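Open question from group meeting: does this chain pack into something compact, or does most of it stay loose? Before anyone orders reagents, we agreed to write out a predicted structure and look at it together. Recording both the input and the output here so the notebook holds the full record.
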Amino acid sequence: MAEPTSTTTLPGQPHLHVVPEAGERETSTRAALRNPRRLRTEVLAGLVVALALIPEAISFSIIAGVDPRVGLFSSFVMAVTIAFVGGRPAMITAATGAVALVIAPVAREYGLDYFIATVLLAGVLQIVLAVLGVARLMRFIPRMVMVGFVNALAILIFMAQVPYLVDVPWLVYPMVALGLLIMVGLPRLTTAVPAPLVAIVVITTLAWAAGWQLPDVSDQGELPTSLPELFVPDVPLTLETLQIIGPYALAMALVGLLESLMTAKLVDGVTDTHSDKTRESWGLGVANLASGFFGGMGGCAMIGQTMINVKVSGARTRISTFLAGVFLLALVVGAGPAVGMIPMAALVAVMIMVSVATFDWHSVHPATLRRMPVSENLVMLLTVVVTVVTHNLAYGVIVGVNAAIILFARRVAHFASVDQVVETDVDGDGEPDVRTYKVSGELFFATSNDLVYQFDYAGDAHKVVIDLSDSHIWDASTVAALDAVQTKYERLGKEVEIVGLNWSSAARHEQLTGQLGEGH
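Structure tokens returned:
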């Protein structure tokens, strides 16, 4: 699949990521293996992501209330697994904070075995939901919810770095500034090596050579010294166990799918490529199953790490995803002491740059805000606020989608009208025998609720014709409203005829009329 050159810039700043050259535009793994320049980009991108994954996986383990190695092993297993079974090349899937928050109560109240059983059940549920076509629901997520999702995520990524900048030695601040300077300035000179990797190496070397005592990765938790082993949770296979873990597993499955599909959609836009969302859905389930059987905490797509991989480092294939997992395991098991020396300032600088690059600055430009309808801006704002307040992207997206639906229904509710168009005097006695009403617009619950009040029941002729040739019946609410209109006329001894129905509306009306209870 060809990949057009895509450059991401910030206002007044240089490009932030490696721009694929003409010979590097193929995104297939096989093509990348034949292209030394592309392969180098993928390898270095995987290394950068692995370094950034370590403190996050440890912190997510702490959130979940489990040993740091649970998050680290989970990130390794999921990244390697999703590289083979996932539907979105270059997307990073590993242990995440959203999943940790959802299932943390299980570890706290029932222990590790029930915790792992929850992860395994969530993986099964994700596979089932994928088979049922949950990925197709992505088309119902409005653009402004997506924009709000991206902006909220950028804010959360930045907020996650704040604790590393509070009550720390003053040298941390110039080191963070140095890292940002390297990542902004280096791409002006060369894109041969990812700027974040250079920043991490330079800051680590400088701190070590000068003997500065800065907070480092080892301060976040103990790194494992052995490889992950197969783990089968010791829980009774009873209905009681299912009642305990079932709600948490379902919540984890839904949150994980939502975040992964939203991230895949975002990466599709960044790279101008299309990905298989259904495969990504069941692939996530498989990855969570693999994670659980190796004692991992499970997870989903990580948008921050994915942006490092795709936007900042220029990766485009599954190689970077696979190597991110491999490098992560090699670093924490084989080079733990060296990795532990990396100052958190270096990783904070990387994540701040990711946050700035992720935010959709165009969406908050005054000119854009003035041009967009108030309802669209409100949907974006609600998505951002709910996500930031709850620290849960799923909640923000759900609120944003529901707000968009309500505002859309409110907006189109005014587009239906009922007009009296014809009065016919059949007998020639000067009194109209037939009165025709023309109904225009889309008829559904928001527009049809007032339909019953649009007719002059007592003053109308003995026969009333309702012409629906310029409208469409979408739901049972409309059929019920038409039934209510007919009932009111019939009580007055008047005849009602509905004409002009298109085939779809006629079929729905014929199927439901008279079956929805007495019209009032």
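Observations to bring back to the group:
The beta strands are 93-94, 300-301, 417-424, 434-443, 463-473, 495-499.
The longest strand covers residues 463-473.
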